[in-house]
Amino acid sequence: MEFKTIAVLGRDEDPRVAEPMLLLAEHLAQAGIDVIADSAENFDLPARQVTETGFARQADLIIAIGGDGTMLHAARLAFDRNVPLLGVNRGRLGFLADITPAEMLHSVDQVLAGDYTREARQLLVAERIRDGKIQAHAMALNDVVLQRRETGRMVDFETRIAGRFVNAHSGDGLIVATPTGSTAYALSCGGPIIEPSLNAVVLVPICPHTLSDRPIVVPATLEIEIRVLERMDTKAEVTVDGHTLGDFTPDDRLLVRDAGSRVTLIHPPGYDYFEILRSKLHWGRDSRRRGGSDEVPES
């Protein structure tokens, strides 16, 4: 696929992001690419000014510079038209935005030359239902989270999978994560890492009151239903990729299922998911050595 119009996206108020955005926009413009951005007027970016909502209609590719939060934001812009995404990491971990600033121009040139791979990442759709009507809905690349709000009290809730009762839970909430989201909030709560090509979701309890309440991996084809149970002073909310879907009460049902569509990520040559895991999670480092080591022990 030829990329004739490329959108450059990032938090330009951050100098660590603004500098590579400017460098990239200049490089693309010199290559004859039609560069668009929503911040072109803010710091003389050599790009055509377009609102973010117009990115998906006009761009053949979105290049997001920042952390995984920026990639999630770019994914929300690209949902409807499946515009592919390329990520340059200026955040802390960068499981989604995998290109380093030092590699940026070379990697982009490889992509422009057609030397890249495409990867489809699963999406979830979450619906908050009351009285049989959808009150709110959103798409998730990472996760859908039920969590307690403005209270130190636990949340009591129950889950059903494909209409079958699974468990009644007490704790701080529940994460329903895609394979992409398995390395985000779900991982910090003890969930497993799921290889991105698997069509699965993981349900991860947040600080469960019962220690036997463990994460469970199920096929993404099964619909998940969550209800909050009546409890004094219970306050809960639902967030989707970090954005609120609203308060969640015992009168509501939360339905989570596979969205039936995917987000396409672009990777330059040499992309290796397991190498990213080794790098970001510091696998293979000998913590006994002073200062640590990046070497992987010989097998």
TrEMBL record:
SUPFAM superfamilies: NAD kinase/diacylglycerol kinase-like (SSF111331). It catalyses: NAD(+) + ATP = ADP + NADP(+) + H(+). It is an enzyme of class 2 (transferase). GO terms for biological process: NAD+ metabolic process; NADP+ biosynthetic process. This is NAD kinase. The keyword Kinase applies. Belongs to the NAD kinase family. Its EC number is 2.7.1.23. The lineage of its organism: Bacteria, Pseudomonadati, Pseudomonadota, Gammaproteobacteria, Woeseiales. GO terms for cellular component: cytoplasm.
